[in-house]
Amino acid sequence: MAHLTPLPERRVVRALEKLGFQRHRQRGSHASYTHPDRRVITVPIHPTQEVAKGTLREIIRVAGVTVDEFMALA
Fold first, then answer.
1. Longest dimension (CA), the chain
2. Beta strand residue intervals within the chain, DSSP E
3. For the segment 12-46, what is each residue's pLDDT rounded down to a tens digit?
């Protein structure tokens, strides 16, 4: 099992796009990504900060993959 560490938002977005999510909209510092099966994930966009572990864990849960699979895509 891969250790979950905070990631830059660029790597989170890259992994989501590989999983089939597309950017739907952005409002302020949060972007919404949707999947064709209607799952929606909100990613905080802060270029100088990393996505926190708790937020990242929730993104992975909604994406429907394991931590190992997500980290391999990121």
1. 34
2. 7-8, 22-27, 30-34, 40-44, 50-51
3. 999 999 999 999 999 999 999 999 999 999 999 99
CA distances from 8 to 5, 24, 30, 37, 60 (A): 10, 20, 14, 26, 14
Q: What is the pTM of this model?
A: 0.90
- Return the exposure string of 30-63: e unless at least 16 CB atoms fall within 10 Å of the residue's CB, then b: ebebebeeeeebbbbbeeeebbeeeebeebbebb
Domains, the chain: 7-73 (3.30.920.30)
What Cα–Cα distance (Å) separates residue 37 from each residue in 17, 32, 41, 46, 69? 14, 14, 12, 27, 19
Whether the Cβ atoms of residue 51 and residue 12 lie closer than 8 Å to each other: yes
